[in-house]
Amino acid sequence: MATVRVVLRKKKNKAGRFPIAIRITKDRKSSFLNTGQYIDEKFWDEKNRNVRKSHPNSKVLNNFIVSKVAEANDKVLKSEMKPEYESVAEIRNKIVEKKGFDFFVVANMHLQNLKNRNKHHQYDTEFGRLKRFKEF
């Protein structure tokens, strides 16, 4: 049975804040998911595993944490129901979905943004560059 918990990692970033992470443990092996949120250590409640009310955005951060934990729990429970064994790394990879954007998809989105902003001259020049790059 795998467990999902919220933890405050102990490695500071350059600003002196600590990252909030989700730890998934299965068969005594752990894997961490970074939430992308950093707080000072004084704002973390270790007992309740959430952000203290003294933090200015505590409600928003706690709701964000709860939603991420619920998402991770959902994926863990689905993997536990499957008959084949899945490691912690496989479960983590299912939770962290990689975006399938390649260069040309992003370039087409950029061209569409230029067209929407009526930047027709810039659109024409960059469209030509993109066309030649595709041919190459």
Word description of this protein:
The longest helix is centred in the middle third of the chain and has 24 residues, at about 60-80. Helices cover about 45% and strands about 20% of the residues. It has a three-stranded antiparallel sheet with strand order 1-2-3. A two-stranded antiparallel sheet has the order 4-5. By secondary structure, it is α+β, with helices and mostly antiparallel strands. The protein is extended and about 60 Å long. The mean pLDDT is about 90. It contains four helices and five strands.
Number of strands: 5
Q: Assign an overall shape.
A: extended
Please tell me how large the radius of gyration is: 21 Å
The main sheet orders its strands as 1-2-3
Number of domains: 2
Strand content: 15-25%
C-alpha termini separation: 51 Å
Q: Which structural class do you get from the secondary structure elements?
A: alpha+beta
Write down the overall mean pLDDT.
90
Write the H/E string, N to C: EEEEEHHHH
Low-confidence stretches: none
The biggest beta sheet is recorded as: 3 strands, antiparallel
How large is the count of helical segments?
4
- Helix content bin: 40-55%
